[in-house]
Design brief:
This protein is mainly alpha-helical. It has eight helices and three strands.
């Protein structure tokens, strides 16, 4: 591996703190929108980093980010239950991932499956008291690590959330 040359670049590329993102910027400089390529790569990379940080903490409770997300959604829903279809649409999980995740939570007694009173064909997931206790414990642990975003100030985290909220499914 050759040592990295000192960058003489100014502007956007020089402002990137990640060497990998600077590399992406240089490599894709000739595409129609190189900044969007770098932005996409930054989101993808940040997702991996934040998820790994959160999974490390959640692993202490035998949870994953997917299981935590579902428990959190149910904990914050009126009555603590929601249809599996709605959970899938909210989380954007593939149906197979949703089934696997729900199965794991149900096996641990953190949720139960109940019939949907408005649609005989549908099934709802309902959080149990044990599920509520665990998700709240996990929330406290995640809060202690600043939700994996300790490098960002509160203002930067706010800006990040606002910017990323513009990206949504069609």
């Amino acid at each position: 591996m050759t040592p990295r040359k000192a960058s003489t670049e100014t502007g956007f590329g020089a402002d990137l703190e990640s060497p990998r993102l600077r590399q992406v910027h240089q490599h894709f400089g000739s595409v129609r929108s190189p900044r969007r390529v770098v932005g996409s790569a930054a989101v993808f990379r940040a997702n991996k980093i934040v998820t790994a940080r959160m999974d490390a903490v959640l692993g202490e409770l035998d949870l994953t980010t997917a299981r935590y997300e579902l428990l959190g959604l149910l904990d914050n829903t009126d009555g603590g239950k929601q249809s599996l279809g709605e959970l899938g649409r909210t989380t954007l999980y593939h149906p197979a991932t949703m089934t696997y995740t729900i199965d794991g939570l149900e096996k641990r007694g953190l949720i139960t499956r109940v019939p949907d009173p408005t649609d005989r064909r549908a099934v709802m997931a309902e959080i149990t008291a044990a599920g509520r206790k665990l998700v709240r414990q996990a929330t406290k642990l995640l809060d202690q690590i600043d939700w994996g975003l300790s490098e960002l100030s509160e203002g930067e985290a706010t800006t990040l959330a606002i910017l990323l909220s513009k990206i949504h499914p069609a």
